[in-house]
Write a structure and sequence with these properties.
Blueprint lengths: L10 H15 L6 H8 L3 H13 L3 E3 L6 E3 L2 H7 L2 H21 L3 E7 L2 E8 L14 E3 L4 H8 L3 H13 L6 H14 L2 E4 L7 E9 L2 E10 L9 H21 L3 H4 L2
Antiparallel strand pairs: 1-2, 3-4, 3-8, 4-5, 6-7, 7-8
Helix pairs in contact: 1-3, 2-3, 5-9, 6-8
């Protein structure tokens, strides 16, 4: 099938967006040569664009080798959207109460194409806890948060997300992922060992609006000695917090309406 020809063209903008999308889809820094090959353009075509993106704060060079990587500028721009501000305003007080109650950290996650991105976090009120900073990304199919987000979507959305996951460069076990998603939907939560950190159990509950997950709330649970709270108690508190945020968002109008 022939790709649809764009009605308008802006070659310089196309080059800049191609570079940003390439770096966003692939974790870690990339050399100019790798970027050139990845976007299908010569080094001379992208040289000035890389310079401008670096000057504007969207890219930074890695000390030592000069490779390029994204800064958090795009993430911060997204955080300025009223919808994101609205959910963080609602969620942060609940998350803070949760962290105080279970003595564990927690973070709020949103979907982003075939990845998940952390948009807010609360540290553990103690000297030990796993910190997952805002802006952190992981492949959707390789995170408990992504699994829960996928599980609580309508079939057409799941199909679209699966297409993105299948087309990504990150391998995954499709049948295993779908089986796990069905179990999550049945139970209403996920409790899985973290893929990223040994010894951490990811507890994740969906934040639901109109019966589908718009965000998830996750506790990277670390068992302490002496035990202050067990994993089941932490899970119960997490689910209550997620339900509280869901209810608050349901009855809270967007900021633009509140200002009227």
């Amino acid at each position: 099938m022939t790709a649809k020809t764009p009605k308008y063209r802006a070659p310089a903008l196309d080059k800049g967006l191609d570079i940003l999308e390439l770096l966003a889809q692939n974790a870690g820094p990339r050399s100019m040569g790798e970027i050139s090959e990845g976007v299908g353009r010569s080094r001379s075509e992208i040289f000035r664009m890389l310079q401008v993106l670096e000057e504007r704060g969207y890219l930074t060079k890695v000390a030592g080798n000069g490779d390029y990587m994204l800064t958090n500028r795009l993430f911060m721009l997204g955080m300025q959207q009223p919808q994101v501000q609205n959910v963080t305003e609602v969620a942060l007080p609940v998350m803070r109460h949760l962290a105080d109650r279970i003595r564990q950290p927690c973070h709020l996650v949103a979907p982003s194409d075939d990845q998940i991105v952390v948009i807010a976090q609360i540290d553990a009120p103690s000297d030990l806890g796993l910190v997952v900073r805002p802006g952190h990304r992981r492949p959707l199919a390789h995170s408990t948060s992504g699994l829960v987000l996928f599980a609580f979507q309508q079939e057409d959305v799941q199909a679209r997300w699966l297409k993105l996951i299948d087309e990504s460069e990150v391998p995954y076990e499709r049948a295993q992922f779908l089986k796990a998603a069905r179990e999550v939907r049945e139970h209403g939560y996920a409790m899985h060992p973290s893929e990223a950190v040994v010894g951490v159990i990811d507890l994740t509950a969906p934040i639901l609006q109109q019966e589908h997950a718009t965000y998830t709330l996750t506790v990277p649970f670390i068992e302490r000695r002496p035990q202050q709270i067990n994993v089941q108690e932490a899970l119960n508190s997490l689910r209550e917090a997620a339900d509280e945020i869901s209810q608050a968002l349901m009855y809270r109008p967007p900021r633009s309406i509140e200002a009227v």
